[in-house]
Write a structure and sequence with these properties.
The structure is a single chain. This protein has about 270 residues and is α+β, with helices and mostly antiparallel strands. The chain has helices spanning about 1-25, 40-55, 65, 85-90, 165-175, 185-190, 205-220, 250-265, and strands spanning about 30, 35-40, 60, 75-85, 100-105, 110-115, 120-125, 130-135, 140-145, 155-160, 180, 200, 205, 225, 240-245, 245-250. The strands form five sheets. The protein has a seven-stranded mixed β-sheet with strand order 3-4-5-6-7-8-9, sandwiched between helices. It has a three-stranded antiparallel β-sheet with strand order 12-16-14, with helices on both faces. A two-stranded antiparallel ribbon has the order 1-2. A hairpin with a 2-residue loop joins β7 (about 120-125) and β8 (about 130-135). The longest helix has 22 residues, at about 1-25. The protein is globular. It starts with a helix and ends in an 8-residue tail after the last helix.
């Protein structure tokens, strides 16, 4: 497992190099059929990751390949890859985009790497724990163990690009002291290192958006559950790998309280 995590780190670093090359110059933005943006960096980064993971023989569920209908038989053990999570942030050039690589086993993410190419900030998690590091000269340096902080004044993290009016109701009900907004799967990482305690998701996500961040957060002692208070699971091919709404939190108790409140929000339409 340690070797696999190091390989995932190396693949994310290689993908970040490709992404930064595109980021440093003018690039074309194309609109997908669902209205979301995609750039040449997405496909180029995915190609690098797929090439580096191929020797493992483990199937890969990757966003751009899935969009093109290239989905392998996944089985009980597979990688989940978002080569450029936060393309809207990439287009805005605010730096809040990431490379996400996760290993899923029996429906649960057990290894995860989240790397922010623009800053070199990187997070990794496994069942053995989680750490933050910085990418220096193509290497993961300054590794520091991270853990959730349940004792700090409660802060909620919300998406900069996918806000929801129900968030205000939740914040009031749970007496949240402050909020912080950040793009991509960095939201999970803020919880993992104790900078926030709650991330409620009221809008749709795909499995490649969340798997790596969930592995990091759970490795740091946090939890991710759906609104029926079950762990967020992976390999949901029957519904196009779309996640139900969920809550990520620093503790099971906080997650359950938030899930209950989210269920009670007036006229919130939950997906199947």
């Amino acid at each position: 497992m340690t070797d696999l995590l190091e390989l995932m780190l190396d693949a994310s670093i290689a993908a970040a190099r490709v992404i930064n090359d595109v980021y440093s110059r003018p690039f074309e933005v194309i609109e997908k059929s669902d209205g979301s943006p995609v750039t040449q960096a997405d496909a180029a980064a995915e190609a690098v990751i797929l090439r580096m993971l191929a020797p493992t023989g483990i199937p890969v569920l990757a966003e751009e390949s899935a969009a093109a209908g290239r989905i392998p038989v996944l089985g009980d053990r597979f990688f989940v890859v978002d080569p450029l999570d936060g393309t809207k942030e990439f287009v805005k050039r605010n730096g809040e985009f990431t490379v996400n690589i996760a290993l899923v086993e029996h429906g649960a993410p057990t290894l995860g790497v989240v790397l922010a190419p623009a800053t070199g900030e990187c997070f990794a998690g496994s069942k053995a724990g989680a750490f933050a590091c910085r990418i220096v000269d193509g290497r993961a340096e300054e590794r520091v163990a991270i853990h959730v902080d349940c004792g700090a004044p409660m802060r909620v993290v919300a998406s900069r690009s996918h806000g929801h009016r129900a968030l205000t109701s939740l914040i009031d009900a749970l007496k949240v002291e402050s909020d912080v907004s950040v793009g991509s799967s960095l939201k999970f990482c803020l919880l993992a290192r104790g900078d926030a305690q709650l991330y409620p998701r009221f809008t749709p996500t795909s499995e490649w958006d969340t798997a790596a961040g969930q592995a990091v957060l759970e490795g740091a002692g946090g939890v991710v559950i759906t609104l029926d208070e079950q762990p967020l699971r992976y390999g949901k091919a029957a519904n196009g790998f779309i996640n139900p709404f969920f809550v990520a939190a620093s503790s099971p108790d906080l997650a359950r309280k938030a899930a209950m409140q989210m269920r009670d929000v007036a006229d919130l339409q939950l997906p199947d």
